[in-house]
TrEMBL record, chain A:
<dbReference type="GO" id="GO:0006412">
    <property type="term" value="P:translation"/>
</dbReference>
<protein>
    <recommendedName>
        <fullName>Large ribosomal subunit protein bL9m</fullName>
    </recommendedName>
</protein>
<dbReference type="InterPro" id="IPR009027">
    <property type="entry name" value="Ribosomal_bL9/RNase_H1_N"/>
</dbReference>
<dbReference type="GO" id="GO:0005840">
    <property type="term" value="C:ribosome"/>
</dbReference>
<dbReference type="InterPro" id="IPR020070">
    <property type="entry name" value="Ribosomal_bL9_N"/>
</dbReference>
<dbReference type="InterPro" id="IPR000244">
    <property type="entry name" value="Ribosomal_bL9"/>
</dbReference>
<feature type="domain" description="Ribosomal protein L9">
    <location>
        <begin position="71"/>
        <end position="111"/>
    </location>
</feature>
<dbReference type="GO" id="GO:0003735">
    <property type="term" value="F:structural constituent of ribosome"/>
</dbReference>
<dbReference type="Pfam" id="PF01281">
    <property type="entry name" value="Ribosomal_L9_N"/>
</dbReference>
Automatic annotation (TrEMBL), chain B:
<keyword id="KW-0687">Ribonucleoprotein</keyword>
<dbReference type="InterPro" id="IPR034704">
    <property type="entry name" value="Ribosomal_bL28/bL31-like_sf"/>
</dbReference>
<comment type="similarity">
    <text>Belongs to the bacterial ribosomal protein bL28 family.</text>
</comment>
<dbReference type="InterPro" id="IPR026569">
    <property type="entry name" value="Ribosomal_bL28"/>
</dbReference>
<keyword id="KW-0689">Ribosomal protein</keyword>
<protein>
    <recommendedName>
        <fullName>Large ribosomal subunit protein bL28m</fullName>
    </recommendedName>
</protein>
<dbReference type="GO" id="GO:0005762">
    <property type="term" value="C:mitochondrial large ribosomal subunit"/>
</dbReference>
<dbReference type="GO" id="GO:0003735">
    <property type="term" value="F:structural constituent of ribosome"/>
</dbReference>
């Protein structure tokens, strides 16, 4: 659901078992003589090789092989990666450039095992909560309501609208403004209001929503607005619940 | 006959070509440097570009012929640029490709893929931007850090003067107790206890001579020799001698002056003690020729 293009690629998984590092490694061209060199006599030095002894076949080019993940231990809380003491298995370049070199992590010991209770998230419910907050702050949620049948806005309306743009949550996470929003009312069409989203019963953030009226009858529908979230709009005149 | 050659009776056990450590200043280099040189240039490096065969004998799968296994390493080329990076033992291979059985072989160079990356040394507490290969970075990962990799790996596998220079600095920093971490003593202690085991393999003299190229070593020994036997100009030497002589003469004069006439500055005393001085006195009596 949340693809993170800011910090680490997908596939970050905490691992419980750390395998010892395999020291014999070749990341390069591995070649083989097409014609074997002549044998040298016992006690003598290298024999002069002929041109054909320098004809090589490529056995393997390890540069194009997929590299194994690198396991590192975080030394502090890193947003959308993990908490302090967590063992992370990531692609080697990402783990090296973004975690080890800035000093956020160190190489995992061969015998190291971390239990879940050892991990310190530094006043966050989870390393990914802040990322969810960032993504929720980025969007303007279109709440599509009926133009013909009377309604009062309820949490499940917001839940369904969130699900349409890829966020999944319970009704209990959503706190609506204290003043009920009723419709259909074309005065509130395309006007902003804020709901409060609670993540993991800890972090709270405001979500900007915008009412849009919709009719099942195509002739009765409002004209289509291209990329409505890019247009400026007025706030709905209701007192919003501040977080 | 053997006595007529520069090698003398050593020739009896076969002719040996003179090496760079047999003539000139090279002969004066200490054993500590020769040990490093053997580790760097003589020792067989790890097989990087080929897979060495195991065992002593192998049987041809088709003919059943038994053949000895002699792993001849592929000759590598190390251009001057390799000394400015950490290539992890990789080099350039010059050879041929046989692309078609009925076509002539084609010359080909297999060149390692280089990229610029950052490495971090905990002992020096420093990030460094260097040209590396993927193999070098993987080796750093496997050894859990640049410091462990450099200190564990023999010089023949590090190869480049940059890597050896950093290793030398690491050893020197360890000898001094990691002065780069003076600001945080707990970290300094932890780093020193982690890496000081590598220092046991070297004597202080070996650390002093580790990682130098032959030219650097020659310059170092030259400076050392000059320092030990300083040559001062004759002018200064003779002048000090003369002053000493004069002083001696004066002291004598003082001894004689106590008995009778004459002071310290009296030239007649000098004339009396050194006959040659009176001859060159321009104010003396003109001698008749």
């Amino acid at each position: 659901m949340f693809c993170n293009k800011f910090l680490l690629p997908r596939g970050l998984t905490p691992i419980s078992q750390i395998l010892p590092a395999n020291l014999q490694k070749r990341t390069t061209f591995i070649l083989k003589r097409k014609w074997q060199e002549p044998l040298r006599k016992k006690g003598y030095g290298r024999r002069d090789l002929r041109a054909k002894n320098f004809v090589y076949d490529l056995v393997e080019d390890t540069l194009v092989k997929k590299q194994k993940n690198l396991s590192v231990t975080l030394t502090q809380y890193v947003e959308s990666v993990g908490g302090q003491g967590e063992v992370i298995s990531a692609k080697p370049n990402a783990a090296y450039n973004k975690l080890i070199l800035p000093g956020y992590a160190k190489y995992t010991d061969a015998q190291q095992t971390t239990e879940k209770k050892d991990i310190d998230y530094a006043e966050h419910s989870s390393p990914f909560a802040q990322r969810t907050i960032n993504m929720l702050n980025r969007i303007t949620l279109g709440v599509v309501m009926n133009k013909d049948v009377p309604w009062v806005l309820e949490p499940w309306h917001i839940r369904v609208s969130l699900r349409k743009v890829g966020f999944y949550c319970d009704d209990s996470c959503i706190t609506l403004p204290s003043t009920p929003i009723k419709g259909p009312d074309l005065d509130i069409e395309n006007k902003d209001f804020y709901v409060t989203i609670t993540i993991n019963n800890k972090e709270k953030t405001e979500l900007k929503c915008r009412i849009h009226h919709w009719s099942t009858d195509p002739s009765n529908r409002l004209p289509y607005v291209f990329e409505h979230w890019k247009q400026e709009s007025e706030p709905l005149n209701i007192p919003s619940d501040q977080v | 006959m053997a006595a007529c050659t520069p090698q003398g009776p050593n020739l009896l056990s076969g002719f040996k070509r003179l090496t760079r450590f047999d003539t000139g200043l090279g002969a004066q280099l200490p054993e500590a440097y020769k040990k490093f040189w053997r580790e760097w240039k003589i020792q067989q490096p790890t097989a990087v570009h080929y897979i060495p065969k195991e065992g002593r004998w192998e049987r041809d799968p088709v003919t059943g012929e038994v053949r000895a296994i002699q792993n001849t390493p592929l000759p590598l080329i190390f251009p001057p640029e390799s000394d400015d990076g950490i290539w992890g033992g990789e080099g350039i291979i010059k050879g041929f490709q046989k692309r078609h059985p009925q076509k002539r072989r084609v010359p080909h160079f297999w060149v390692p893929v280089l990229r610029r990356s950052v490495v971090f040394s905990a002992i020096l507490n420093q990030h460094m931007s260097v040209t590396v290969t993927d193999r070098a970075i993987n080796l750093i990962h496997d050894n859990r850090g640049l410091d462990h990799y450099l200190l564990k790996t023999p010089a023949c596998d590090l190869r480049s003067t940059l890597a050896l220079g950093i290793k030398r600095k690491l050893l020197q920093a360890l000898q001094e107790g990691c002065p780069a971490l003076n600001d945080s003593p707990t970290k300094q202690k932890a780093v020193y206890s982690e890496y000081s085991k590598y220092l046991e393999q070297y004597t202080p003299e070996e650390v002093e001579w580790y990682g130098l190229t032959f030219l650097e070593a020659i310059k170092k020994i030259q400076a050392k020799i000059r320092e030990e036997s300083k040559v001062s100009p004759h002018k200064i030497e003779f002048r000090s001698k003369l002053i000493e002589e004069l002083k001696k003469a004066n002291i004598k004069a003082v001894g004689s002056g106590e008995e009778g006439e004459g002071g310290l500055d009296d030239t007649s005393n000098i004339q009396a003690t050194s006959s040659w001085f009176s001859k060159v006195n321009p104010f003396g009596k003109k001698q008749e020729t």
